[in-house]
């Protein structure tokens, strides 16, 4: 599956959150000037993108040259490198993809990196990003065609997402569909077809469900007959969510047996938004037969009347992405990895994970990563290259989660903080009093989380007495402490709050759900060395088992419907779906 399609939804959501500027930013202007481009010369920016665009024929030739980077004879490898270098800017995007291909031949990746380094006197990934934003802002003649042409060669998912956002702004010309986008519906490239589906359907006024009426019949026909599963999904998914018409629901139901797991989660969430609950037999199982039965169950529900998408809240709760904190205790190393909807690695946090050794991770809406670095006594917000954007120092932070107001809730071994990123100190602080049973000065918190009403719940490791406490939204103690299961020998505890306001926590060999009013245990699931837990929108529960190096998704009936094991065999310390 093409890399752009696998990371499509998440990247576009991040890009779409950025407003389109009326003038070039200083950084974009400086980048463009480094290659003698004016940020206000739309025609020149279009020309640059065309210069970087390789035809399908030339792409085939270039791919053949890159394959020869791994030739048996050393002199053939050198000759292939020189041949690629002579192609100049045309070779940059294919070379970058080869250099970053972790699953490919390491010799090809190495030699692609060498040639790329010689070619790039300036960072053309930054130039292309600035050029795309400039074209979107200026809307020169030929803009849509140039952006579509360059899309499969985009230097990164972020650039591809910027192109998609730009195409939405260019989708309508003189009240009619942009001809280049209509033509792209029949393009040989799945990336271009997908971009055309989204641009011609999304982006209209909130009260207008069909953005470009003259293009809708062509979009529907093209999406339904698209031979690429991912492109077909994106077309039908966009049509169903945006137009809110009933006719697309059976199309999505029919795709259930063939979709990759991340896309299945999105379709399931969409259907649950309509139905409210699974029909009998409608939960998505592990095997092709299970999925076929689920498809038939949902098709039966729809045949009996289904529900009206126009009257439902179709806001997605699931993007089909999975974030992982993988552990290698033998060397003290950690890896922060995000899987795309195709269950393949979409990105891995850069930098030196041994220096961070995080205890918890959360991927923010911006695409940055929030890390609770317990052993370093800090919480950091980092970009995907590993660079620190914001930093908060606190004693042994165990977890950090984003709050609706943009602040962080940080839970430490002895303290709970509300932190405003980029500002010194904490907005609110709670410090645990001394625990006589532990003969320690309050270093007994094992996990905590924010509740739907704005309060905070945390659990402690004391051997006796109450161990479930609540704080109000200013982090002052509130309510009566409760007693739940004990947390001895739980080095990495996981915690989550269900939509009903119940608390899910991990014990050493079990996940348990507790009523916050009574402390009584409800649903439980036995699993050794549980280290992470999340109640999913579909009612299932996602659990990591760190010492068995696996994570599972289990139904309320405790049936495993999905399982993850790291290809590297690393223990799964934390897992979150978004």
Q: Please, could you describe this protein's structure?
A:
- The protein has a domain at 1-170.
- Mean pLDDT is 90; it is low at 1-22.
- A hairpin with an 8-residue loop joins strand 12 (415-419) and strand 13 (428-431).
- It has a 4-stranded antiparallel β-sheet with strand order 5-4-3-26.
- The radius of gyration is 26 Å and the shape is globular.
- By secondary structure, the chain is an alpha+beta fold.
- The chain contains 19 helices and 26 strands.
- The chain starts with a helix and ends with a strand.
Number of beta strands: 26
- N- and C-termini, Cα separation: 20 Å
Unreliable stretches (pLDDT < 50, length at least 5) are: 1-22
Strand order of the largest sheet: 5-4-3-26
Strand content: 15-25%
What is the alpha-carbon Rg in Å? 26 Å
Biggest β-sheet, characterized? 4 strands, antiparallel
Please state the average pLDDT score. 90
Helix content: 25-40%
Q: Would you tell me the structural class of the helices and strands?
A: alpha+beta
- What is the number of helical segments per DSSP (H or I, 4+ residues)? 19
Shape: globular
């Amino acid at each position: 599956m093409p890399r752009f399609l696998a990371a499509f939804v998440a990247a576009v959501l991040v890009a779409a959150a950025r407003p389109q500027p009326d003038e070039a930013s200083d950084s974009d202007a400086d980048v463009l000037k480094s290659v003698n481009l004016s940020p206000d010369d739309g025609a020149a920016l279009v020309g640059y993108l065309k210069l970087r665009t390789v035809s399908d024929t030339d792409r085939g030739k270039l791919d053949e040259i890159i394959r020869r980077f791994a030739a048996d004879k050393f002199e053939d490898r050198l000759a292939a490198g020189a041949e690629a270098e002579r192609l100049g800017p045309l070779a940059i995007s294919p070379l970058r993809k080869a250099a970053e291909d972790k699953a490919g031949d390491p010799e090809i990746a190495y030699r692609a990196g060498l040639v790329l380094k010689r070619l790039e006197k300036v960072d053309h990934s930054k130039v292309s990003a600035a050029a795309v934003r400039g074209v979107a802002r200026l809307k020169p003649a030929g803009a849509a065609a140039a952006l579509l042409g360059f899309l499969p060669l985009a230097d990164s998912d972020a650039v591809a997402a910027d192109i998609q956002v730009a195409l939405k702004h260019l989708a309508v010309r003189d009240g009619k569909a942009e001809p280049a986008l209509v033509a792209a519906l029949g393009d040989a490239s799945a990336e271009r077809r997908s971009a055309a589906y989204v641009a011609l359907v999304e982006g209209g006024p909130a009260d207008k469900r069909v953005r470009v009426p003259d293009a809708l019949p062509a979009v529907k026909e093209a999406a339904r007959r698209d031979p690429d599963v991912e492109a077909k999904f994106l077309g039908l998914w966009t049509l169903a969510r945006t137009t809110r018409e009933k006719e697309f629901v059976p199309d999505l139901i029919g795709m259930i047996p063939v979709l990759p797991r991340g896309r299945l989660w999105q379709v399931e969430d969409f259907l649950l938004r309509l139905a409210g609950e699974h029909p009998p037999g409608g939960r998505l199982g592990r095997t092709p037969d299970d999925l076929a039965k689920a498809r038939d169950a949902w098709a039966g529900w729809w045949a009996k009347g289904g529900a009206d998408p126009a009257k439902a809240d179709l806001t997605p709760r699931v993007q089909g992405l999975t974030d992982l904190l993988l552990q290698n205790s033998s060397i003290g190393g950690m890896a922060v990895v995000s899987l795309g909807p195709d269950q393949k690695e979409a990105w891995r946090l850069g930098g030196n994970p041994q220096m961070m050794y995080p205890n918890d991770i959360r991927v923010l809406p911006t695409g940055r990563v929030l890390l609770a670095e317990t052993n370093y006594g800090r919480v950091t917000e980092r970009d995907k290259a590993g660079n620190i954007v914001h930093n908060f120092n606190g004693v042994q932070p165990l977890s950090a989660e984003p709050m609706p107001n943009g602040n962080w809730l940080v839970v430490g071994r002895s303290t709970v903080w509300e932190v405003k990123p980029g500002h010194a100190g904490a907005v609110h602080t709670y410090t645990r009093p001394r625990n006589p049973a532990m003969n320690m000065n309050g270093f007994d918190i094992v996990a905590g989380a924010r509740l739907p009403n704005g309060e905070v719940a945390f659990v402690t490791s004391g051997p006796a007495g109450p161990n479930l406490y609540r704080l109000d939204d200013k982090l002052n103690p509130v309510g009566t402490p409760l007693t739940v299961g004990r947390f001895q020998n739980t080095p990495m505890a996981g915690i989550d709050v269900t939509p009903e306001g119940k608390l899910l926590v991990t014990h050493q060999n079990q996940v348990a759900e507790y009523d916050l009013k009574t402390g009584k245990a409800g649903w439980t699931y036995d699993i050794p060395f549980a280290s992470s837990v999340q109640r999913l929108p579909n009612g299932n529960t996602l659990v990591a088992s760190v010492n068995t190096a696996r994570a599972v998704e289990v139904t309320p009936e405790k049936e495993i419907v999905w399982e993850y094991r790291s290809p590297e065999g690393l223990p799964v310390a934390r897992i979150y779906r978004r």
